[in-house]
Structure formats: structure tokens, C-alpha cells
Amino acid sequence: MVKISRILSVSAIILGLYVIVAASQFPEGADGVPGPGFFPVILGIMIILLSVLQLFNTRKDKDDDTKFMNEGTRRVLISCAIIIGYLVGMEVLGFIVSTPIFLFSIMWYFSVRKVSTLISIPLVSTGILYFVFLKFLSVSLPTGLFF
Amino acid sequence: MFVDVLLNVFSWEVLLALVGGVTAGIAIGAMPGLTSTMGIALLMPLTFRFEPAVGMMLLIGEFVGGIYGGSITAILINTPGTSSAAATTLDGYPMTKRGEAARALGISTIASSTGGMISALMLIFIAPTLASMALEFSAPETFALAFFGISIISSISGKSLVKGLLAGLLGLMLSLIGMDNISGFSRFSFNTIFLMNGLSFIPVLVGLFAMSQCLLSVEQLYNDNTIDAKNLKRAKISLKDFLKILPTTIRSGITGTLIGIIPGAGGDISAFVSYDIEKRFSKHPEKFGTGIPEGIAAPEASNNGTTGGALIPLLTLGIPGDSNTAVMLGALMMHNLVPGPQLFVEHELTVKTLFAGLFIANLVMLVLGLSNVKNFVKIVNIPKKVLTPIVMVLCVIGSFAINSNFNDVIVMFVFGVIGFFLCKGGFPLSPIVLALILGPMAEGNLRRSLVMSHGSYSIFFTRPIAAVFIFISIISLFWPIVKSLRQEHAKRKEGR
Of A140, B161, B187, B249, which has the maximum CB count within 10 A? Predict the structure, then answer.
């Protein structure tokens, strides 16, 4: 299995290369004063150098063997999928409708099976948040197409 | 002025905000997996509609309570609720095992609030002097200061220097997104209007510090820490214990404040340092680790001492001392209070009210801690599988509330995922946020200085204050490398 910090280092190298290529096309500065591309190019070079160093460190470091995939990580990825569904749903249904549905489904996925919890927590917490933020603090909440 | 400050602090809104903030802080701090930084990030949207002083009190209360709250779980179940309470487990848990949980909690409460009050007093005396010195700073000094902030934070937070530096560089990179404020050229915005103004700070924060924590607790979903607290009624403190820990508490409070001033060194470091100092100068060092009062008082007074310390560079120089104060910087900006020396001139009353508020927050914490431990324990027992989804919803609200822009919610989620993987890979998160703040300050002032000097870099070395800061930054960047080389050299010598 691939070590997680190796994946991160390689992505950082790609990011650094992209930044250097993009920033070298920015307009140049005048009178010895650096232009908008100066800082990004330096950062890009430093990121690449340090990432290469980190790749070597990862190889040596025996404690640093966090693997990419395990049962916990899989649960995180599926939860992320549920959250993405929640965010997409929010754009259509709005906060007030999508939030209880999200809370119910993610708690179900986390294997909460007590019916009273599954029903009361989504409804009560959405209600409290709605009143505290929208009515009391008049902070706006995401609205959908209908609500 | 003094009367005005008192009138400000003892208004019912401010006191209510302090009590609310400290209560939320203790609860959040006590729960393993929820950190005080996360609490501040999530409470921030609540403060937008309040007066700046009231809103900041809520956050300061949260900060103080959050650092203390971690000790409750450290003492009762040997699991620090926040990383700064890690040292408290050393003597706190052995005392609980002897059946003296109430005594341990009492000692930690009194030491925490005393340490916090000491740091508030030090803040009151040190900050204005530092601010008046910083008033003289111009572009080269400000660049040197920002450079110093970024380098020291990257080099001391986290276990690996390279990972800390990479995190800092990532933050600097993110700070580049959007319109360049000198030439007006738009960088890395991919032709979207949303990114043209740069990433909004708060969604990034909520993502990195709150959403990523949620994902981390999803990973550990079924390892719940429940506390059996049937026998625990309240925290107790006897006069004998109080007198015994008083010298330790005062020393540790001062040490904590001084460590808190250093950007990047927070409560976790100061707690271990103070524990170590007390052990070294104790008449009976062998008793440390067996559950003695001084072993609880030292880390607790010290980590709460960092609260006032961390506020010193934040308020006087605009450089946050740790991730908590980085989030507070975001909140101050939301209220149009730009931290830095000018703040002490233009908003003197607000600043002094904040000082007084920090002191009173510690008194509030003392009362709540001594009277209500049982209720905080009940909150810790809420299972993760119910709590985590609700916190996720709070992250959505928090990131949406600032600009009412749904793109901010997406930014929050993306940074939540990035933060999760960086944490898994052992990368510290606070350098990212600090670099995100200090990046524009460093770049803008670098270029402005070069305009002043017509392109000559000597301007950074001929001005003494700038030169000193740059010198310290370079040492802090290279010292760990020198140290590891020396260690290897010593090893080779031994091998021969």
C-alpha cells in the first residue's frame, strides 16, 4: 500500500511545477521591483525541493507508515460522498429540507438504529439552528429553488 | 478610561457572552476530537451580528474555556480533550485512579484560572509597550516580521521541519490566489469572479480546523470515550492543596505566557516545558507521575498562561501566536478591527475591554469549573456518531454565513478533505493558516520596500529591526538542520 505522505509529496511537486509554468507567463516587474510572477516562482521552486526531500524522508522514516486505505478511511470517503449529496441537495431543496435528510441518512450510515434518535435529532437540531441563526441572529441560510 | 472599560465589561451582554463562550469552550475542549480552534471557528458566525467587543468576548471565553476543558478528560479517562492537556494526564490520571478525581479536578481548575489571570495581567502590561514600539515600523520591518512569523511557525510546529515548511509554503501559495494588490494582475483565479478576490479566509479555516476534525472522528467513529461519573459530584479544592500549588502555579503561569508570545508555540509545548521545570527544581522529582498536586498544577497553569501570551503578538503586531488566535484574527477583521499597533491608537477602549474580558473569563471559568463538572462530563458522553453529523451541519452554516455565498461552502468542504489527508500524513495545519494570513503581508511589503529602495535588497540589512528579525528567522529555519547534522556526527563518533 502507498504511504499517504508519499502521495502528498508527489501532488505537491505537481502543484509546484504548475505554479512555476503559470507564473512565468505573468507580466514582468520594472526597475528591479519584482512583478506578480516573482513570488510564485520562488515558492514553486521551494515546494519542489522540499517535496523531493520529503520523499526521501518518507523512505527512511519507519514510523511514518500511515497507509492510504483502511476501514476508517473508507468510512470517511463514503461520508464525504454523503456530504456531497447533502450539498447538491441543498442547492435544490434549501437548508431546511436537506439538513434533516442529511442528518438522518448519515446517522443511519453510522449505524444509529434507535428510532427515537433517528427522528428527534434531525428535526430538533434543524429547528434550533433555524431559529438561532435565521430568526435570532438573522444570518442567512442557503436557500434552494423552492424554499 | 478605567471607568469606561468597567462599564463596558460589566454590561449584561458582555458578561453573557463570556459565560456562554466559557461554557461552550469547556464542553468543546473536554471532548476528545473537538479542539478549541474548532470551537472558535464554529462560534465565529454567531458573532457577526454582535458589537465587536461582545463578539470577541464570546471567542476569548471559548479560547480560555477550551484550553481548560481538555484537562477534564485528561484527568478522568487519561485522554486529553485537547493536545494542550496531554501533560496533565501524567499526574491527573494517577490521582483519579487513587479515587481522588474531585481533588484532581479542583487543582486543575484553580491552577488553570490562576495561570490565565497571570497571563491577562502580563498582557495588560506588555502589549501597549510593544504596540507603541511597533508604531515606528514601515514596509521593510513589516516584511521582516511576516517572514519571521512564517519561518518560526513552520519550523516549530509539528514533528518534522520539512513537513512544517511544506505546510507553510502551501499556505503562501493559497494566499497568492486572486488579484495582486500592487499590480492589479489576477493570479491563479482561473477566470472566475469568485476566486478573483482571493480565497475567503473563514471557509478555509472552518474546513481545515472543523470539517477535517469531523472526518478524523468519522475514522475513529466507534472508539467512544465514555466517562462513568456516578460518584463524581463536584470538583473540590482544600486550602492546603491551594497553598501547596501556589508557587508552582505562579511560575508556570509566567512561563506559559512567555512561551505563548512566541508564534507557533502553543499550550501543548508550554505545558510540557513547565512540567519539566517543576520536576527539575522539585525537592522530590521522583514523585512526579504518581499523582501529585504540582504535577497537575504546572501544565494546567502553563497552558492557560499561553492564552494571554498568544494574544500579545496578535493584537500588537497582527501576527497570531497559534491557530486559536489565527481564527480570532479572522474575527477581528470581520469587525473591521485590523490588529496591529494602530489598533491601540484607534480602538483603545475596545482593546482594553478585551484585556479586562480575558481576566474575567478566567474568573467565570473558575466558578463554572468548580460547580458544574458533572454537567460537562455528561456532554462528553454524547456519542460521536450523533455529535459529528451535527458539527458538520454547523460547518456548513459557519462557512455560508459570512458572504451568503454557496461557493464558500464548497471551499470549506474541499479544505476539510485536504486537511484530513494532511493530518493523516503528519503535516501540521496551523502553518497553512498563518501563512495564508502573513503571505500577502510579506509579499506586499517586500515589493513596497524594494520600491522604496529602488530595487536594492540592502534595505533589509541596514535597518536594525528588520535585520534582527530576518537574522532570527534564518537561524530558526536552519537550526534544526544543523542540530540533526550534529547528532549524526556524534553518532558516527560513538560508532568508531
Answer: B249
Of B169, B219, B413, the CB nearest to A87: B413
Q: What is the C-alpha radius of gyration for chain A, rounded to an integer number of angstroms? A: 24
CA distance A112 to chain B (A): 7
Bridge partner list, A3: A67
Q: Please give the C-alpha separations between residue A108 and each of A115, B323, B389, in angstroms, as whole numbers.
A: 10, 34, 11
SS3 content of chain A, % helix, strand, coil (to 5): 70, 0, 30
B176 and A26 within 8 Å at the Cβ level: the answer is: no
A1 in contact with chain B, both atoms CB, cutoff 8 A: no
**Type of residue found at B45:** P
B300 CB-near residues (< 8 Å, 6+ apart): B68, B71, B85, B88, B107, B108, B111, B112, B115, B252, B271
Calpha distance B42→B395 (Å, rounded): 7
Shortest distance, CA B49 to any CA of chain A (angstroms): 6
- Is residue A22 within 8 A of residue A44, CB to CB? The reply is no
Read off the pTM.
0.85
The alpha-carbon gap from A139 to the nearest alpha carbon of chain B, in Å, equals 6
Interface contact A43-B397, CB threshold 8 A = no
Query: How many CB atoms neighbour CB A113 within 10 A?
Result: 8
- Tens of pLDDT, residue by residue, chain B (496 residues): 778 877 777 888 889 999 999 999 999 888 887 888 888 888 887 787 788 888 889 999 999 999 999 898 888 888 888 888 889 999 998 988 888 888 899 999 999 999 999 999 999 999 988 888 888 888 888 888 888 888 877 766 667 778 888 888 888 888 888 777 666 677 776 767 677 777 788 888 889 988 998 998 888 877 766 776 666 767 778 888 888 889 999 999 999 999 888 877 778 889 999 998 998 888 888 888 888 999 999 999 999 999 999 999 999 988 887 788 888 888 888 888 888 888 888 888 888 889 999 999 999 999 998 888 888 888 777 888 888 899 999 899 888 887 888 889 999 999 999 999 888 888 888 888 888 888 888 888 888 888 888 878 888 888 888 888 888 888 877 776 777 677 777 777 766 5
Task: Please name the residues between 38 and 77 in chain A that touch chain B, using a CB distance below 8 Å.
Answer: 39-40, 43, 46-47, 50-51, 53-54, 57, 64, 66, 72-73, 75-76
Of the candidates A32, A72, A125, the beta carbon closest to that of B219 is on A72
B392 touches chain A (CB under 8 A): yes
Strands B186-187 and B178-179, by their bridges, are antiparallel
Burial class (CB in 10 A: 0-12, 13-18, 19+), B282: middle
| Residue B169 sits at the chain A interface (C-beta within 8 Å) | yes
Q: What is the ipTM of this complex?
A: 0.88
Those of residues 12-51 in B touching chain A at CB distance below 8 A are: 45-46, 48-49
Residue A23 to residue B400, Cβ atoms within 8 A: no
